[in-house]
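Lecture 7, part 2: worked example. A protein chain together with guanosine-5'-triphosphate.
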Amino acid sequence: MNTKFRSGFISIVGRPNVGKSTFLNAIIGQKIAITSPKPQTTRNRILGIKTTQDYQMVFVDTPGIHKPKHELGRLLDQTAQSAIEGMDAVLFMVDQEKGLAEDHIIRLFQGVSSPVYLIINKVDTLKSKIEIDKIIISYMNAYPFAGFFPISAIEGTNLNHVMDELVKCLPVGYPLFGETEVTDQSDFQLMSEIIREKVLYHTQEEVPHAVAVVIEHTEMNAGVYEVHATIVVERNTQKQILIGKGGDMLKQIGTEARKEINKILDTKIHLILWVKVKKDWRNRPSDLKSFGYDKNE
Ligand SMILES: Nc1nc2c(ncn2[C@@H]2O[C@H](COP(=O)(O)OP(=O)(O)OP(=O)(O)O)[C@@H](O)[C@H]2O)c(=O)[nH]1
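Predicted complex, written out as structure tokens:
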């Protein structure tokens, strides 16, 4: 082994919708975390693993930090907070559209011994350099960040500079994952997340947040991978919206999810989707557990 090989953990934290998952996918070079224009897309802690000849960087993508209204929301905040401790570096991502430093988030970093970097994302939508300078100054006054990087996760701007800096934070050490591994998610998790992403893109208001996706079972049938999945919602009205007129909406979600799963898993799949109502599941610990949201600690 390269005696100077470095390995370690970097977490990505920030408010919902600032682009954490988009950044992770861009760094890893393939989609491992779903993204959407809706806040609170990410619900589980997801590892993204980047391995080169010289280093292995394990990124921890976290749910956005917000003010929780549900038991699920509380669990998501806890996940983000626990991802700040014990890292080799922390990336605190802000969205240049959202503006200036927020005390309740900055407070999370008090007492954190690892370097925390300020990442200002979405600079592609920026109108003037003065605006970005204003954001940088506001955050740098609020916390002694180890450095700052204006980036565009979508266009790939400045990502190389972030990586160059992060490598310096990693200790010398052995790789922790196989060199071809890019995530710790199982195929079942990936499939359910992709279905949930399509639901997020096609629904509005309360529906996206009320949805969980469960892969019930899979089987090989005449060379085709048959995947049976249930989309769980909280109310009958949400079920009707998801099914759509004459089943149109569910069909659309199913087609888009199938195409993407085919591509990612490189297997021909047949996706069978059901919609089920489970009242108030976001407040029930037993439901959160059975839908896979108990693995965040
Ligand atoms: N213009 C622009 N949009 C971006 C950029 N990065 C992300 N977005 C968009 O911002 C939205 C949110 O991106 P996500 O990656 O899902 O954000 P997130 O921070 O992971 O969100 P949560 O899961 O809610 O915490 C999506 O619509 C992305 O396409 C960027 O660099 N430029």
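The chain has nine helices and nine strands. The pocket of guanosine-5'-triphosphate is lined by residues 16-22, 35-37, 39-42, 63-64, 121-122, 124-125, 152-154 (CB under 6 Å). Keep this in mind for problem set question 3.
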